[in-house]
Amino acid sequence: MRTPTTARVGQYAALLAYLVFLAFPFLWLISTAFKPPQELGSLHPTWIPENPTLDNFRQAFDEQPLLRAALNSLLAALGAAVIAVLIATPMAYVMARHRGRLARAATGWVVISQAFPFVLVIIPLFLVLKNLRLINSVPGLVMVYVVWSLPFALWMLAGYVRAVPAELEEAAAVDGAGRLRTLVSVTAPLLAPGIVATALFAFITAWNEFFFALVLLKTPEKQTLPVILTHFIGAEGVADLGPLAAAAFLATLPSLLVFALIQRRITGGMLAGAVKS
Known about the structure:
It comes from Streptomyces mutabilis. The structure is a single chain. The protein is built from 13 helices and no strands. It is mostly helical. The chain folds into two domains: 5-52, no CATH class; 58-274, MetI-like fold. The longest helix has 32 residues, at 2-33. The protein is globular and about 75 Å long. The chain starts with a helix and ends in a 10-residue tail after the last helix.
């Protein structure tokens, strides 16, 4: 009994160390956001602010258009998530159910496309958006986010489609349902956890994305939150640390809240009991 107990204790210790490693930057960010300037410049920083203040948040909203940037990020993230799911769901169904050479080639292209660096595709994307007159616009940014998140969305949803028992679709075909009716009425409801997980991935990816937004959006009225955060850094590279931490803390909240609200749907076993073995 000693060996399994020791191994389990070691596993829990490693998991705890990993959680502390992940939580440290976020906890320090919260602490910095509520510290006054005197404590930010202290040679002996503390975890808990001695004189917590909200002045950093007030200053952040006074210096930069955070609400407008948050609205731009929300529109871009929601648009990318919805469009990516609508496109990826039928395509993933075809890739999962028709395993021919074309499907294998499409799957290979999905995997390879994830290895492309941002710098390699930004110039073609910029030229395409320029010809479409979508530079410096949120719809143009949504189009880029959809293209960038679609391969991984296809990969995720194809795995969920393969987990749906084919017997359900065969039973629907016997009852006279066509492919489209089967997808909408039988397969899609069982794919709800996968669709939610894919939408969450696309939303968080678009919400946190920086490089494309920096290149494609020029005016402050159109820029997203990650780009606006760079405005708290001066020309000489000196950061306005308090307001920057406050704005960054507010920028991380939507992703955390969205995940907290729907994480049960992601882990729910909606396929359990669909077919008797």
